[in-house]
Specification:
Length: about 140
């Protein structure tokens, strides 16, 4: 589906506040509320908009310890137990020496260490490279 300027303006407004009422989006974009509504329906049906969600304060919800991990697996098998883990927030297949890049959030270093000790025992994991986030500079939904 090709997005035009109106679609992009609606999406930009929703990225700022996914609870923004249609009337406010209409005012912000200079479109009629009925037009905004129709476009929202079309954007959802075509899966351009997958979900309306929230962004939480990591520390306030007990996820202030953020880790990025590169994982090398035998022979490029995605470990389902990893993808289904509550700490895994994002996962991507990547090119290069490693196969998977994962973003994870934990309460603290102890919780992460407990996770890591269990995870690295998995028979399909060849190697990991872990990077601990020291400062959140930008995080978008």
């Amino acid at each position: 589906m090709e997005l035009d300027a109106q679609d992009k303006a609606i999406i930009a407004a929703l990225k700022q506040d996914s609870r923004m009422p249609i009337r406010d989006i209409a005012k912000k974009t200079g479109k009629r509320p009925s037009t905004v509504h129709q476009r929202l329906v079309r954007l959802r049906e075509s899966k351009v908009i997958e979900a309306f969600t929230i962004k939480t304060n990591n520390a306030a919800v007990g996820e202030g310890f953020i880790v990025f991990m590169l994982i090398k697996t035998k022979p490029q098998v995605v470990v389902n137990s990893l993808l289904n883990n509550e700490h895994v927030k994002e996962a991507f297949g990547v090119t290069g020496e490693y196969d998977i890049l994962v973003k994870m959030k934990f309460k603290d270093v102890s919780e992460f260490n407990e996770f890591l000790l269990k995870f690295r025992r998995h028979e399909k994991v060849e190697a990991t490279l872990t990077m601990v986030c020291t400062a959140g500079l930008k995080e978008e939904m």
